[in-house]
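Teaching assistant's notes for section 4

Start the section by putting this record on the projector. Ask students to predict, before seeing the second block, whether APO domain-containing protein will look compact or extended. Collect guesses on the board.
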Amino acid sequence: MECGSCSSSVAGGAAMALWCGKGLVSTPKMLPLRVFLSVNSESLKFNPCPGLGFLHSMQHFKHKLKVQLKSSQKMHPSYASIIKAEHPQNTDLPRYYSRKEKKPFPVPIVELRRAARERLKKRKGQPRKPVPPPKNGMLVKSFIPIAYDVYNARITLINNLKKLLKAVTVHACKYCNEIHVGPTGHPFRSCRGQNTSARRGLHDWTTATWEDIFLPVDAYHLYDRLGKRIPHNQRFAIPRIPALVELCIQAGVDIPDFPTKRRRKPIIRINKSEFVDADESELPDPDPDAPKPPILTEIPDFDIVGPSNEEETTLLAEETLQAWEKMRKGAQKLMKLYPVRVCGYCPEVHIGPSGHKAQNCGAHKHQQRNGQHGWQSAVIDDLIPPRYVWHVPDVNGPPLQRELRSFYGQGPAVVEMCMQAGAAVPEQFRGTMRLDVGIPTDPKEAEMPSKLTMAGAEGVKTTSQKVATAGQNSTEALHQRSKLPYCPMRMALGGFAIAMTLGYFTLYSKKKPEATALDVAKVATGTSSPENTRPPPRN
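Reveal the predicted structure now:
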């Protein structure tokens, strides 16, 4: 075996093997000799075998891979290599909840109550601390640049999606909300829209827009995020804007079209639900000419120009994917301090500490709730839905086949669109898109494992039945059956004998059956004698 840190040579008919750090020299007629080597040299780095260089490429797998090198001689040491990866080879999509199911809480109620009790215990006997921002009405200054980055990333994503639609074909169904990225629509019968029975579940594809890929989620715009909740009779008087834009505005982005209240002093809290604003008359007026971060704007549809060649398409796809990841990561950071609420029954989203009071929930059993929303903490997928689509393994190859549906993966529409345009897929989506899973070229190849499994199961079943029938009445089987430790007749006789014994002792000792059973157990185990179990004589 030749290794990068090892060397082998043959001298005088004796083989000598040198290992990392320490060497062992063995000859047929000589004792082992230990040789110490320097491990600081660059040429003696740990590499058990250069033939195992593929281990570096197998780091994409989640499971641990152990490689143990064994030698024919016992004196040679063995090495174990463990490779770990953060993302598995094949993962399932997040669970889909039907309209009749309520979304689970991001943090279970039991853990929330436990954490609240712990906070109360820690606060007991300690002075009250001032409320930190943004709960006191002030902005978190360190999060203002993040809010501008998220807002500009959203604008960049929309503009780039409009340009990519000129180079990548995206289909949308006329009757349902499903889309597909690829030259032709997929053949799967998954349509649940109007007249689906006449079409037998097939989709009727048409051209998609950027709003089909990047779903717009709207929310109410709040002038004061700490103000009173929106009542039901004012649901049409308050404007609705994209929820992500509202989150950025509350985090510090100033947009002239959507004014909001900015406090320069913390609020004065009266009780849990009441507060007053501090006096800001002594403070100087803010400088309107102060420099502010730049804000991007959307490009109109008639000014959109698609990429002219493949290089521009690839660069545009990489920029789009970076904007997508930057927007989602920044929104996750903002959601840690600025609360976002979502209805547990419908997709309604509200940016603020508590949800609005508009009774416009039309989800399952909304009559029992009088149309009110069941507000709970939101996750990033509620604010920015990923919109999963089927992954096309080869855009220039054959289309997707209905028989191979279980082999195809799925991924966010933005990621699939950028991948077909030439961008590299992020590692966190390789498992759901099944990029490392082999796909049969012929549907008959996919049916072979199931047929072999069924044939093997039937053969084993038939063989076991024949063996059981042939050996049921044999002499050896009857002989072995007589030696079984559990015989039904013996067990019945033994139970009857135990019951009669307990009854006799109960009548003899005039004790309860429980005490009698305990006495019998003591006598059987030798912890007591029969004389000690008799009742004491009466005076």
